[in-house]
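Q: How do we represent a protein-ligand complex in a form that can be generated token by token?
A: Start from the inputs.
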Amino acid sequence: MVHGDGTVFWVHLDSNVSVSSNDEKLLFFTITDITQERKSRDTIQYLADYDTLTGLANRHLLKDRIKQAITASTRSKIFGAIIFVDIDHFKTLNDIHGHSFGDVLLVEIALRLRANIRESDTVGRQGGDEFILLLNNLSPDISEAAIMALHLSEKLQTEMAVPFDLNGLEYHCKISMGIALIENGANVDELLQHADIALYQAKEAGRNTLRFFDPAMQEALNLQVTLESELSDALKHDELRLYYQPQVNVEGKIIGVEALIRWQHPQRGIVVPNDFIPFCEINGMILPIGNWVLHTACVQLKKWEQHPTACNFYVAVNVSAKQFRQPDYVSLVKTTIDHYQINPSLLKLELTESLILDNIVDTIQKMHELKRLGITFSMDDFGTGYSSLAYLAKLPLDQLKIDKSFVDNVPGARSDEMITRTIITMGIELEMNVIAEGVETQIQKDFLLKHGCTTYQGYLFSRPLPIEQLEELMNS
Ligand code: C2E
Ligand code: CA
Ligand code: CA
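Then emit the structure tokens for the protein with calcium ion bound:
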């Protein structure tokens, strides 16, 4: 209710019915002002959920949020993570300068942590000098989720490296971190324990460092981190290679190729794209790399203009979301095709279903602009997302590519058979070519052909090959 002076107050309303002598029912209300009571209840609730020094969620609220995050992650199959953050040598600071300095540091650290997470994430203080970050919805892909958690942790380390001003004292602070991924069906206490173990290992490893709970994941990440640091040299030292996997018609004749990147590593040999493309997408290296792929593919198209059989081959190039979303992507492609003077209709861009759906307005606009240049499109990994027929009809697509995960199980698995047949029918109805990827057996090919799919790519015909081997195959 509102007072005469405009202030709002809380009331408790009680009603009573009494019956008068002439049988009339009278309704009485008792109004009690409970504003004070309400305020103290809010305060008690606040104290129960928040840390008074930093204003962050306390352990109690955090556990609640983690529990919700686990439920959500189990439902959506998207991984999240929790990160334990611990200040190195905090005790020493307290011992030498007193607790008031320690408190200022805790407050400042809370601010920096908060400033570096998304709205949907939570930072909490678990007591002492330990903080916990809860990161929701990282990625459906476990290694990508791990990389994202890793990048955030590294960013936090950089942020913390900026000296703190503690009542005039310049203080250099380092932190250690333990990370555990929120997986399907995890349990809150177990998860906290995992992150704690990882933190302990980070401290053991000499502080100012971070560790993942899962040893296998830690190992995989060590490799990724090494690869990531070596990748900038890969471009400089000309270690990237473009392999070409043939795409064939019903007679098994090559009609085009898909360009697939490889990294010819000086020590490790051939590194496949799944081991380096994911972090390139996160750290932005995909832009120069994607550019390199486009240029290399155009050079190849130009060379094949003179070749008696290959002059009609198209080259399909994979485009990652980050590349496609660049504001100048269309002009970049235009400049490249103009530069090499290639026939644009032989350049096919493979866009994944998730890229297309992620920002449909931008996608439709850019696709139409590229289409006007004469370029063709294939929708990669088709069937794995949620394309609606309405969108499909609006997109200037030339081809649908049935994802390998369906091809793997046909004939045999009824639902995959049905999806495969439906995609083929849709393609035919929309007057698009349909290609199946990952075709490994004659039985798969026969099934696809029987239902009207007449273009194929897969080990049954050829693996991705370096250009020399592809040309040998073409000439044989
Ligand atoms: P994708 O576009 O779905 O490529 C098809 C992948 O399936 C390729 O793996 C190919 O070697 C593999 N494959 C083809 N036929 C068969 C088969 O019959 N059996 C099996 N088991 N596998 C088959 P690859 O070359 O390792 O590429 C993996 C992914 O890396 C690609 O998936 C694509 O998403 C990405 N990628 C590759 N090159 C590039 C690139 O130049 N730029 C970008 N942005 N991504 C790339
Ligand atoms: Ca592809
Ligand atoms: Ca694919």
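The two ends are 89 Å apart (CA to CA). The pocket of C2E (ligand 1) is lined by residues 245, 260-261, 272-274, 277, 290, 293, 318, 320, 380-381, 404, 437-440, 457-459, 464 (CB under 6 Å).
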